[in-house]
Amino acid sequence: MEQVHLFTKKLKPTHISHALSFPTHALEAFSFPEGAHTVRFEAVDATDNVWGFCLSSRLTGAYPKPVLLRSSWRRFVELKGLVPDDRVAFFMERSDEANDMIRRYTVRAQRKVMILMGQDVWVDVEDLPLYGL
């Protein structure tokens, strides 16, 4: 399986309280049903928990402006204890299993724990107790 990094986003207060804006280029990784502007997908986190998300893009306007809807995103934010300046990263693994493209998504919620030699050090929020945070 080939893993593709879809995007990493540092969270702002509106991402915490409302919806997560999704980069337009990442829409390529999702198969929207014919005529639909939303797609549901599952992503696995660092502890193998499966999260259901709903990705939506607007029907009018100059560009699609995709977002993860609050109804699916908020539970993830709350249970991970995410705060502004944390970040999330989405990945897609794909394989060609006899020409039936199989896609598996993963999501990581991370917090910056330090700066080491001028570089930010990020860890999965599930590992924060190991750092005494």
From TrEMBL:
The keyword Transcription applies. Keywords: DNA-binding, Nucleus, Transcription, Transcription regulation. It is found in: Nucleus. GO terms for cellular component: nucleus. It comes from the Eukaryota. SUPFAM superfamilies: DNA-binding pseudobarrel domain. This is TF-B3 domain-containing protein. The lineage of its organism: Eukaryota, Viridiplantae, Streptophyta, Embryophyta, Tracheophyta. One of its GO terms (molecular function) is DNA binding. InterPro entries: B3_DNA-bd, DNA-bd_pseudobarrel_sf. The keyword Ribonucleoprotein does not apply.
